[in-house]
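Work Package 3 (structural annotation) set out to generate three-dimensional models for the target panel prioritized at the project kickoff. During this period the team completed the workflow that converts sequence records into discrete structure tokens, so that structures can be stored uniformly alongside our sequence database. As a representative example, we reproduce one entry of 334 residues exactly as it appears in the project archive.
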Amino acid sequence: MKLADRIAQCRTPFVIACRASGRTRTLNNAAECARDVSSAPIRFVLSDDLTRLCTALAYSKGARTIACADLIRIPAESVWVEWPSGPWQHELSLHAISVDHPGYSPGDRRGALFRGSKDGRRGALRTFWSGGVEGEALAGCIEAYFDLDTPQGEEPEPPLGWSFSAHRVFDPAHGSSDMLGRCFRFRYEPSWQQYYDEAGLHPEQRAALWRHALGTIALDIPVLCAFFLLLSTRAGLPQSPQSFERLNRSRAKAGKAPLLAHIDVRAPLLPECLAHERDDEGAAKGRRGPRLHHVRGHLVRRGAELFWRVPHLRGHARFGAVRTRTVTWTFGAH
């Protein structure tokens, strides 16, 4: 079952007891988000290959810079996006980012709900996931807001009603060109903020808890930005609308909740160029050819075009093979 359906059908409140006060509290979680997910006019479900592509783009050199921010648009005021955890985890591991967890299973899924402006340039989002033996749907305790037009040195404009202080995630490797650091801010969802305020935590515990909770959303944002970036290309992405009218009629007769319509989105066919070269020249000069090694992907923008050198293996066990793939995406004028 898709994660959107699990959330839409969730009716069980998330109740927790505070050890410090002894009080029970209902925290905002999947059940409180069921209506928003059900009413989203657009729901995207990413395939395995597109999940790998977006994650590779997100964490390759240069893909998170502000240079691409003006090309990104959220396509509606409310949008749901979900993707499989397995390909996401695997691709992150290739970039030395570990998100292994004993509770994960091959069927686990992740998702994000966007609520934004009509121009698709600012808004808020919250992430979700399913896991465990029964695939329970859970909502993250961290929310984010963003403004993709934030000028350097200024703060993104928070949505109305955001009274709690928000925090920044900063990548010093990118400096002022870091899109995540300039355009996105994070805070606890209000019911979770109140719960943690009453928990009587030490400052060190608060800091460790914040870093852990932030990891449930911050890793997803570059991947989501890469997806919306690809969605905005002139060629777009292969899409297959999925409706379940016939199946839902059968489910209704059986007393089951209907499944939500969504759009399956796949990765585009990427042009490949396989070049096999022998290192005769190097051998003639007495030089040993390059050993097989991994080359990180990198993204370059030139006007309305993006050029991406896909992460690839260079060299060969016998010093001869070079594999290269360069992908070009073209955008319309904005």
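DSSP finds ten helices and 17 strands in the chain.
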